[in-house]
Amino acid sequence: MCMIGHRARVGRARRVLVLVVGDARCGWLVLSCLGLCPYRARTSGPLLRHGLQIFDLKQGTLAMVLLPLQRLRRNLKALTLNAVGRYGYHIQKYPLTTFSPISVFDLSIQFLMVVRGERLNFIQVGANDGKSGGDPLHRYILNYPWHGILVEPQPDIFAKLRENYAAIANRLIFENIAIAKGLSTIAMYKTRSSHPGPEGACLVSTSPQVAARSFWLRPRDLERIFVPCATLDDIVRKHSMSNIDVLQIDAEGSDFDVLKTLDLSKTSPLIVQFEHGHLAPQEISAAVDYLNSHGYRVLYGGHQIDTLALHKSFPLLDAAW
Question: Which of 297, 319, 316, 318 is CA-nearest to residue 307?
Fold first, then answer.
């Protein structure tokens, strides 16, 4: 039980406010300890809805507020969820123990290969070296007859990418560019060799703030490089790949900007996955709206970082649309 008291003078009468956190029995116990007896009880509608009860007492005017502990927790939880929700955040329960989550992305790909066959067409933006960072496409590209385009802007990492996929280069296209709209070149930020980050030079971003935060460095410790760029529409036209099964985007904070360079009304990948960890809530909402408006159903990734979208033409999904 918790009790908080406050005294104030109203005219000639002394008014004492007592807040009791507990149940009704706690309130009566407080009254007994104070040697006071209830004169009458009055409870207003708004207070009642929040679990508050006010009692006037004979000696002086002692007002006591009873707040059941369980209801107090519910009210505080509701207030917190509403407050963070206004800024685009969501709080939910998450297991504290270690567990292996089910990858809906992998389930979708494997189901698609069962229905359509093992040969799929893909575009991967931010392919890195093809191995690092838990690449979600690496094992599929190596073990199945996939054909696709690998996009990586960093020249040194791009060389490693080509080397890692040299054995199957005949079914892959490599593009050493960044994806952006309305620009011929773009500035990107990575670690200097004198300030190696936790992932070395394997991560690059158009945002110095995102790159610095990822490397635990100051923005001034980053190296700026300039790379050529094109849109996804340009890439699709260049290589005549209008039929895309999988679009994977990992652009370190520019994921929605990259997605917008593909006209989804003309080219609609069956599976779209992008990283939202560096996106502001407003950008995440805009990306979901963009996908919704072009016939996609979206599974927000939450704690798992990546967001997945399936087009309405995905096998069997149209039946449940």
Answer: 297
Tokens for 285, please give them: 């909402």
Which pLDDT score, from 0 to 100, does residue 15 have? 45
- Alpha helix segments (H runs only) across 9-58: 24-34, 45-49
Q: Same domain for 309 and 251?
A: yes
CA distances from residue 112 to 87, 102, 103, 138 in whole angstroms, order as listed: 36, 17, 14, 17
The set of residues, in sequence order, having a beta carbon less than 8 Å from that of 114 and lying 6+ positions away, is none
Domain that residue 170 falls in:
104-176+230-320
Averaged pLDDT for residues 23-35: 52
- State the Cα–Cα distance between residues 21 and 184, nearest whole angstrom: 64
Query: What percent of the chain is modeled with pLDDT above 70?
Result: 69
- Whether 49 and 147 map to the same domain: the answer is no
Q: Name the pLDDT band for 305 (thresholds 50, 70, 90).
A: low
Give the number of other Cβ atoms within 10 Å of residue 76's Cβ: 10
| 85 vs 71: CA distance, rounded Å | 21
Question: Structure pTM?
Answer: 0.70
pLDDT digits (tens, 9 = 90+) for 83-130: 777 776 777 777 777 777 788 999 999 999 999 999 999 999 999 999
> Are residues 17 and 113 located together in one domain of the fold?
no
Residue type, 98: T
Which pLDDT value is given to residue 50? Answer: 45
Is the Cβ–Cβ distance between 256 and 279 less than 8 Å? yes
What total number of domains does the chain contain?
2
Taking 60 as the threshold, does the pLDDT of residue 24 lie above it?
A: no
CATH for 58:
3.30.460
The alpha carbon of 136 is separated from its chain's Cα centroid by a whole number of angstroms, namely: 18
Residue 196 resides in a domain = no
